[in-house]
Design brief:
About 45% of the residues lie in helices and about 10% in strands. It is an alpha+beta fold and about 325 residues long. Among the domains are: about 1-90, no CATH class; about 130-200, no CATH class; about 260-325, no CATH class. The strands form 2 sheets. A 4-stranded antiparallel sheet has the order 3-1-2-4, with helices on one face. It has a two-stranded antiparallel ribbon with strand order 5-6. A hairpin with a 4-residue loop joins strand 5 and strand 6. Helix 5 (about 150-165) packs across helix 6 and helix 11 (about 265-275) packs across helix 12 (about 280-285). The chain is extended, with a radius of gyration of 35 Å.
């Protein structure tokens, strides 16, 4: 077995070892479990296995294995009485980021499918492509898009409606009922009617998950913690990076909660001002709170509502004309 071990700090090393098993899948499973047992933070990747058989030959000398070779393999193979995994370190060539080849930032740009007009499927596309919202009333004949017979389209639409009604508007179950894939069902729906029509007439039912009791949630958390303790894993990641992320999330949660509470005050303030001719003192009395508290509410919510502009007071000292008029 040839494989790579990835350690917790991100470094990697390549190894070769012998595993006794009846199949490649079983050998791979044994190897992964043994590496986890030795160090739970280490992961095995890029595993390749080759079977040793009676006709096996050395890759360098092209000679069959001798009896002493077979004995050495048997003694160094895992599982063994000592429960020890004998592994040979395979140094990587200079410049290799894995044990197979070199990869740089430039070479990675040419790997995988590209977006946009340079995408392989778009360059090698056959026929005339149409977007989903442009396929309504059309059918693909194998070489081009043609007009769909109205009667056939009506029958297809009715079959889809029947499947949705029988399956409580569940798209996946409706597709299974029609013996087609869910993606095909969505395409047929788009060609019969627009997406908005289906969502309005036959909306998807979003089920609310059942509320879990406090006792059940506590029991689940204890079970998870016990499993982590048995595996020797830490309950919480207490590294500086994780702690900084946790504190940041706590601060964001507090800000969101504060903003949510402040936004809930806006309708109350608006209703009080509108019913009291924008006079702040009377609005505070109608809400049965102090004038200072009411001004504090307005100060906290001024980032969302410009109170002096939307609900100007006739006693605003900043407006000299209005103030003088009231004074007279």
């Amino acid at each position: 077995m040839y494989y790579t071990e990835r350690f917790a700090d991100g470094s990697e090393k390549d190894y070769a070892t012998f595993i006794k098993a009846r199949s490649y899948f079983l050998a791979k499973t044994i190897l992964i479990e043994k590496i986890k047992e030795d160090d739970s933070s280490t992961k095995a990747k890029a595993i390749l296995g080759y079977m040793l058989h009676k006709e096996y030959k050395h890759t360098n000398t092209n000679q069959k294995l001798t009896l002493s070779d077979w004995e050495n393999i048997r003694q160094s193979a895992f599982p063994n009485l000592n429960n020890f995994l004998f592994k040979k370190n395979l140094p990587r060539p200079e410049g290799y980021t894995n044990r197979f080849n070199k990869s740089t930032a430039e070479s990675c740009k040419n790997i995988g499918f590209k977006k946009g007009d340079e995408n392989w499927s778009r360059i090698n596309r056959k026929g005339i492509y149409k977007k989903l919202d442009e396929r309504k009333g059309l059918i693909w004949t194998g070489g081009e898009w043609a007009k769909w017979d109205k009667e056939e389209m009506r029958q297809t639409k009715n079959r889809i409606i029947t499947a949705l009604v029988l399956n409580n508007n569940n798209r996946k179950k409706a597709a299974e009922y029609l013996n087609i894939g869910r993606t095909t069902l969505y395409k047929l729906m788009a060609r019969c009617e627009t997406k908005d029509w289906w969502n309005t007439e036959y909306p998807i039912e979003k089920r609310v998950p059942p509320r879990v009791s406090r006792e059940q949630r506590s029991a689940t958390q204890k079970l998870v913690m016990e499993k982590r303790r048995q595996k020797g894993l830490p309950f919480f990641d207490k590294s500086k990076k994780a702690e900084a992320k946790r504190i940041k999330n706590l601060k964001l949660a507090k800000v969101k909660k504060r903003d949510r509470e402040r936004k809930s005050l806006i309708p109350k303030i608006k209703e009080a001002l509108a019913s009291n001719n924008n006079i702040r003192t009377l609005a505070a009395k109608s809400l049965n709170i102090k004038y200072v508290t009411f001004k504090g509410w307005m100060e906290k919510t001024k980032c969302w509502v410009d109170w002096s502009k939307e609900y100007p007071s006739s006693y605003n000292k900043n407006d000299k004309l209005t103030w003088n008029t009231v004074k007279k």
